[in-house]
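Form 12-C: Joint structure prediction
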Amino acid sequence: MGCMRACPTHAIRVKNGKASVISELCIDCGLCLGVCTTGAISATTIKFAELTGFKFKVAVSSPALFTQFGLRENPAHVARALLELGFDAVWEYAIDIALIDRAITDCIKTWPGPFPLISNSCPVVVRLIQVAYPSMVEHVIPLEAPREIAAMELKRKYSQELGLKPEEIAAVYITPCQAKAISILQPAEEARSYLDGAVSIAEIYNDLLTKMRKNARPPDASTDAVSSGELLHWGAPEGEFPKLSREHYLPLTGLTDIMKVFNDIEKGRFRNIEFLECHACQGGCIGGNLTVENVYVARSKLLHLMATMPKPDCEFEKEVERRYAAEDLSLRGSLKPRLTGGEAIDLRERVMRRKRAEELVRALPLLNCGLCGSPTCRNHAEDVAASRADLQDCVFLSLDRINQLRNLYKK
Amino acid sequence: MSVELLRESFDIQGRNFDKAGEVSSEIKVILRDLFIDAANTRRTVIVAYEGEMNVVMYAQRGTLTLILTDKDISLEIADEGPGIPDIALALQEGYSTASDEMREMGFGFGMGLPNMKKNADEFRIESQVGKGTTVFARIRLNADG
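Section 2 - Result
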């Protein structure tokens, strides 16, 4: 029942000892995954072995990966270990991040409103808005996520250089969370993802570590795919786009805090803020639940890396310049509120159900114990009013229910 | 003719900035539970919030009433406040009688009433100086609510 209690959108019910998800309400945040003790919930990432059908495999690694190892293992070591694992190339993702940084800055300048604009790189935030803050979909910045434009560009580049078809090249995201894996399978804006799948950091962590321990010599320039400190802003809790002016820019992490701010925005507050950068995981992407290292240790590594990494060279700047002029970074498709089913019912019936739920909730203890199988008494009343549950599932109203539960859960 | 489906009233406490905004939050939850479409919910909540803040800033107490019919959403915000001597002036963008204290809290830019008017399909103010003000706003629903 931990999963049901953890779910921020109250999407889970537990009936007869089995959890089920109301998929229209699920925002892929993974909080249920983090508390599941039975292994009933798992992430939809792929395994490296599933990529055998591709002729050329390129890793697009979340910068969170580089924060997962000791201080001696710098990003170049990690990149080399990725190659040893079987990837044919490690993409220099920092350029895509710099591109989106520029695109965001330019978008803010010409944006007609409504403000604040909200970042969309965290898929959980995008889904939270679609499901729980539908009136705010217009606040979500209409740009592609950096990982998407990375995949698009790497397919273009390598198909040209190697004479392969784009579909023979795998663009694989190394992901710190299940949400980004799901966003590849089911993009919120209903366009098709350029990425071919996501491999979890936790899944390849041990292999990478072993390879790095075996091969301790410093990597040479040819495999040193990751050279710029810029890369490491991505996934940092302090924000991804440090060039924005502090007064008009707020970085937020953690769903609880994000929801507090969204509640205020919905009322029309925060219009003087231009850009909100939101990451559902506490501490940002380095706190994702497919990472291995404790978020505070990872953060300390991140700060160390940012302080010691070299500044991007002029080749880097030139490439950013070239691609910024050449590429369309605006979001393909458009973001719409997610319909959760209730809209189809006649308005009168909706009002009736609400009134019924209001009456029913008075009969309930309001302790939100969850033993009925709904996360709150209010949810139970609503479920009953919509004929999805039996009022007598409440242990306060039916002693039979306690005996039932005793039989179900006793060890 | 429209048929009234729901009517709920909420008390607003004047001068209580700690609780300010709670009534509009409740309105939002009701509309969301009723699956009212996003654009209409947004407009209603903005009107409710600005109206609620006006009561909090200027009056001792007030009431916000939400009335839902099969055709529209109405908000009636009535207060026992100082009243508005010149309604046309009060509706001008940027006109404000807010104190420095209110401005420091981020209010009082003279956008409250104009913003309410902009977000409503029908908007009306009745006011008596020394007695209070009542604001009516109506937001029409689309065919599917």
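Section 3 - Comments
The CA atoms of residues 66 and 75 of chain A lie 5 Å apart. Residues 1-42 of chain A form a domain with the Alpha-Beta Plaits fold (CATH 3.30.70.20).
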